[in-house]
Automatic annotation (TrEMBL):
Residues 8-107 form the Hemimethylated DNA-binding domain. This is Heat shock protein HspQ. GO terms for molecular function: DNA binding. Coiled coil: none annotated. The keyword Coiled coil does not apply. Keywords: Stress response. SMART domains: YccV-like (SM00992). It comes from Methylobacterium durans. SUPFAM superfamilies: YccV-like (SSF141255). Signal peptide: none annotated.
Length: 112
């Protein structure tokens, strides 16, 4: 039986997204069905913009104009990135490959 409070994630692995408020974008490399970080992390977010915990949260290989980093973002704060611009995050090549259409796909991991 599935939990009726669980929602299907809006973005899948390899989806390129932008933050709704802050100027960064990234690629989804993991999804938590609900919040799965520390209470300290959650409480550090200003209350007026603090997201609900009962929604998917995404692990992103993220970048802004100055740097590349890993971000943890609620679904309510993400929108699709439709720019078509390639991402430059150094970690992307380890996890994804980009096809001729510009879509990011998980790399095949074959044991040696």
């Amino acid at each position: 039986m599935t939990d009726p409070t669980m929602r299907t994630a809006k973005f899948g692995l390899g989806a390129v997204v932008r933050h709704r408020i802050y100027p960064f974008r990234g690629i989804v490399f993991d999804v938590d069905p609900i919040f799965d970080n520390t209470e300290e992390w959650w409480l550090a977010i200003p209350e007026e913009v603090r997201p609900r915990k009962d929604q998917p949260f995404y692990h992103l290989l993220a970048e802004n104009a100055e740097s590349e980093y890993v971000a943890y973002v609620s679904e309510q704060n993400l929108v699709p990135d439709t720019s078509g611009e390639a991402l430059r995050h150094a970690g992307i090549a380890e996890v994804f490959e980009r096809d001729a259409a510009g879509t990011y796909r998980i790399r095949d991991r074959h044991p040696n």
